[in-house]
């Protein structure tokens, strides 16, 4: 099979040579190899160790030359000084794709810089491509392949992450799991000696499992290539970047006023806008946006319907939407008249639609009202608060010692049916739904179910509104890039 | 890294000539007159001006141009000429021009004097600044900002990487926090967006075509009574490793 991108094998190998693992849990390499073999990886792992006969129960090979032929990739967690020599041997053996975890190169300066130069030269000589050095590794949950230092315990998802921080690459596994979504692929790029962020963008561009791309950036190496490639990729998939580095030598000494005022932060801001990249202001925000962008259609305009079961969250939605330049327009007389037939007399039909309390609340909030509002031509998207499991009634019944008209099991089945149909509404209408909830996955199984079905449920109305705005902005980016006559696209 | 790979254009012949003529050994920046002529070659609208050899010629020239005029000492050694007292504005008569010119020349000891620049005074309530700088990562970048005395305090700017198109230029203006000031505002006309785009695109082209130019500052860029932005002062800074 011809290789379309060097990262294909690095993300999804069948056979892995592992350099730097032993049976001691106190070394990084051992833990990383353990994560590979215990994370559901179905391929073969071939440890290389000069003394041990086996490593973590796998047959070990004393040298690289002793390995079987035709191994897909290598993972290297070795002392810095021997990395160039090991790459040389891997090159000779014909294993030219992999991951170099080892640090101590250009990031420490001095002799590290010389070693990195040697690494570059050997790599060029044999055509070796790898992520790193000085990185935490790579993770492909669907392939069960995770060579980082941290276990991936969540579900596979739609978000591809390329990170210039190792910790952000692997500690985010838990963040994303708790949030209710998951990664398609994660790559820690390290010092980017042979593969950089632009290469990652090009990989994600054609990776069918990646629906939204997250980038953690401290400094782009190929700025102009980044803009050109991102403009192409953003036509197909949303890119969200978190850039942290704007204060680095911010005010460069310059003779002109404009040079003094335009530091790296301002330049990256402009470059992102030109590149069609959405810039997030924090790590959670980047994932809020990626989640919404990966799962929901983009709104055609900025007119939002707000549905709530109580004043506060609805007002927060409307307030946040307004600050962001979106509208929460009063609904048409026709829609309001239809609404009033189904909502309690205490409820408001204007927008926000506040249904207060109703016996058939679940049906109203998860079915009838969303469908009615999204059928209105004047509405482009829906912000919703007020979903929680009907199991709460089962709990009350138990505490009060009374009987429910339905069994708890029946109610669970009802929740299941409602969430399945609710999660299809955005695609049916081609309009996005973003929800907020104060419940977490631990509190409420309905929240888990909806999140697993691709409904972004964020922990505050403000965050939900901001994510909706990101959807709106991505829609405009796509339109702009499709119709642009920018010289960057020539 | 090939900084020009996304757009190959040829350097403007006049611009090359201006740099060649103006540049001497160790020269760090071009004089205002050379800077203005250079950006003009790339389509930047600059205020009408003429370089005069002495005080008498300046007075004569001002009369032909029409009062009021601005008078500036033109020198590559005086990039911050305003602070050095080498700029006089609002001169309304031949005598005023003559007196200001003599006074400036008397203080110009040790400064290479290219001449006296007589400039038609552009009137406008609103000021922008524009510029080009070279960035290590992205190459030549174009900046637009709100001008005037509070420019640094407000730091209301937007940036794009060259080459830019009219769409980028429009976005740059709209991104300013005080963008409303540059629409139709209290009887003032909206800024001519097409004219502004021409200026910003031109600055980007200079950055792409002339690697020897490190920075450009167009400050101020005054919005005249018809909404047209006019460059009233310009500074072209040459790079230390430049060919000039």
Short summary:
The complex is a heterodimer of chains A (490) and B (244). Chain A contains 19 helices and 19 strands. Chain A is an alpha/beta fold and 490 residues long.
Question: What would you say this structure looks like, in words?
Answer:
The complex is a heterodimer of chains A (490) and B (244). Chain A is α/β, with parallel strands linked by helices and 490 residues long. Chain A has a domain at 297-459: 3-Layer(aba) Sandwich (Rossmann fold), CATH 3.40.50.261. Chain A has helices at residues 7-11, 28-38, 83-93, 111-126, 166-170, 172-179, 197-205, 223-234, 257-261, 264-275, 283-295, 311-323, 333-342, 361-375, 391-400, 408-422, 425-429, 445-452, 461-483; strands at 15-19, 44-48, 54-55, 58-59, 73-76, 97-100, 129-131, 138-140, 145-146, 159-163, 183-188, 212-217, 239-243, 278-280, 304-308, 353-354, 381-385, 433-436, 457-458. In chain A, the strands form four sheets. Chain A has a seven-stranded mixed beta sheet, sandwiched between helices. In chain A, helix 11 (283-295) crosses helix 19 and helix 14 packs parallel to helix 16. Chain B folds into two domains: 13-45 and 124-238, 2-Layer Sandwich (D-amino Acid Aminotransferase, Chain A, domain 1); 49-120, 2-Layer Sandwich (Dna Ligase, domain 1). Chain B is 31% helix and 26% strand. Chain B is built from seven helices and ten strands. In chain B, the strands form two sheets. In chain B, strands 5, 6, 7, 8, 9 and 10 form a six-stranded antiparallel beta sheet that branches. In chain B, helix 1 runs antiparallel to helix 2 (32-41), helix 3 packs antiparallel against helix 4 (94-106) and helix 6 packs across helix 7. Chain A binds chain B through residues 219-224, 227-228, 254-262, 264, 266-267, 269-271, 273-274, 480, 484-488, 490, and chain B through 1, 3, 5-7, 28-29, 79, 129-133, 135, 137-139, 141, 143, 145, 151-152, 155, 157-161, 163-165, 167-168, 171-172, 175, 215-219, 235, 237.
